[in-house]
């Protein structure tokens, strides 16, 4: 009988996404089951004692382990090429659990300046309270990273490509730097997923996910995950089982089924994004398109080297500053005006007044978040309809 958790051969990504993780039960189900149970029962007091004491493997309580959650964890670990995955209640919970597991008071984080807004708040406002400090550097400048490292640096943290300007970090170079300083390198792989980028193969120690985005892919559930080596993940697991940011079995099931079409969806997302980026770049009302898939992008070559494709999030600067950007957004009838991404539905947002609205004017300038900038997370509708929806506002602006 084949063991789906241990293929024993080098399966391709789509096969791993469909065939790994599920340990079939005595019911011989074909589809992955959902175990909506908070606790598990035993044949005897002695068995309960062994399971609680950790002398015997097995389920105790769904804050610790749940078979549906473990199916998702094994499948995502296989896709990222990591020894172990721990699922969490959200992407933010994945980042918090990683920090609690690996850091202590006095430690320092060096992170890229262009990070998800809540990640910056987590580092500054909350980890800061407990004596962990964070320095921010230019994502694409290796010199900047190197200069910010001190003997207290324990964690390097980056999102690549960045949101919404599609800047790219050189992962192997950062991995080399972190190894020389005996620090961990964690990559938030939310924008590309293992279908397009495998940070562990490029030398990173840990991969962080907001499963809320492309792993689900259809905007249904909030969740997260951390993937990496057993030793570090055992610490992350300890945080999750003790502090409680565990993933619900139902959400884990949604993500497990989402992973089955991940490869297919990401190809289609990228194809739509490339066509939209090329069309936008030639539009007279557009001043600049930030997308690492365009040859005009300053890091196109690096992105092509370490990524399988370029993702589906575009930064588009239009004429007329905030007024111009808002007029293009308000002229859409189909696109969803929302800050979310990683959905089959195309979303559009004005970063300067939404996702990056809490930044000061100086911080916005440093981060390249101009008033004329629009972010489009390209979905899977027909490309002609996405274009037509944007053309309405852009043509009026041209
Ligand atoms: C959404 C997001 C997060 C946070 O994930 P949640 O699931 O919303 O908690 C972290 N990093 C990036 C890059 C994101 O886009």
Rg calculated over all Cα atoms: 22 Å
Distance between the termini: 64 Å
Q: Class of the largest domain, according to the CATH hierarchy? A: Alpha Beta
Helix content: 25-40%
CATH superfamily of the largest domain: Type I PLP-dependent aspartate aminotransferase-like (Major domain)
Describe the structure.
This protein folds into two domains: 13-259, Type I PLP-dependent aspartate aminotransferase-like (Major domain) (Aspartate Aminotransferase, domain 2); 262-397, Aspartate Aminotransferase, domain 1 (Alpha-Beta Complex), CATH 3.90.1150.10. The protein is globular, with a radius of gyration of 22 Å. Strand 5, helix 8 (193-196) and strand 6 form a beta-alpha-beta unit. Helix content is 40%, strand content 15%. It has helices at 13-19, 45-53, 67-80, 91-102, 117-127, 142-148, 171-180, 193-196, 230-243, 249-260, 262-281, 300-306, 321-330, 361-367, 383-397; strands spanning 84-88, 108-112, 133-137, 153-159, 184-188, 206-210, 224-228, 286-290, 313-318, 336-337, 347-349, 373-377. The strands form two sheets. The protein has a seven-stranded mixed sheet, sandwiched between helices. Strands 8-9-12-11-10 form a five-stranded mixed sheet. The chain has 398 residues and is an alpha/beta fold. It binds pyridoxal-5'-phosphate (PLP). Pyridoxal-5'-phosphate binds at residues 90-92, 116, 119, 159, 163, 188, 190, 210, 212-213, 222, 224.
